[in-house]
Amino acid sequence: MMTLRKQAAAFVLGLLCTQAGLAASVVDGQRIYNQYCIGCHGPGGNSAIPNAPHFSRGERLMQPDMMLLMTIKSGKMMMPSFNGILRDQEILDVIAYLRTLQR
């Protein structure tokens, strides 16, 4: 469960990020997903690992972008942190791509 501090940070980050400043690219997101995420989350978001979300079914994607960004940056359970590996813009690109996978 996300702590109040993380929720507040995500909220503030969301206020600071304008759509014009951080317009997400689905094409870049797919490229980054294929490089960093596909090994566990599978092609097309069909997870290859037990307990990893199936993005093709929309699992975990009902959260706002900034909450997902914070989760990807900090890691969760078996998923490693991508803080320092991916920039915020790259994470938002991945999230934009993930949202195209929902059926």
Question: Briefly, what CATH class?
Answer: Mainly Alpha
* CATH 2nd-level architecture: Orthogonal Bundle
Q: Note the run of SSEs as H and E.
A: HHHHH
Query: In which range does the helix fraction lie?
Result: 40-55%
| Radius of gyration, in angstroms, nearest whole number | 13 Å
Derived structural class: mainly alpha
State the domain count.
1
Beta strands, count:
0
Distance between the termini: 26 Å
Q: In DSSP terms, counting alpha (H) and pi (I) runs of 4 or more, how many helices?
A: 5
- Mean residue pLDDT: 85
Could you describe the largest sheet, including whether it forms a barrel?
Answer: none
Looking at this structure, what is the CATH superfamily?
Cytochrome c-like domain
Low-confidence stretches: none
Principal-axes geometry comes out as globular
Top keywords for this entry?
103 residues, mainly alpha, Cytochrome Bc1 Complex, Chain D, domain 2, 50% helix, globular
How would you describe the overall organization of this protein?
This is Cytochrome c553. Keywords: Electron transport, Heme, Iron, Metal-binding, Signal, Transport. One of its GO terms (molecular function) is electron transfer activity. The structure is a single chain. This protein is an all-alpha fold and 103 residues long. It has one domain (23-100): Cytochrome Bc1 Complex, Chain D, domain 2, CATH 1.10.760.10. Helices cover 50% and strands 0% of the residues. It is built from five helices and no strands. It has helices at residues 4-16, 26-36, 38-41, 65-74, 88-100. Helix 2 (26-36) packs across helix 5 and helix 4 packs across helix 5. It is globular and about 35 Å long. The model has no long low-confidence stretch (mean pLDDT 85).
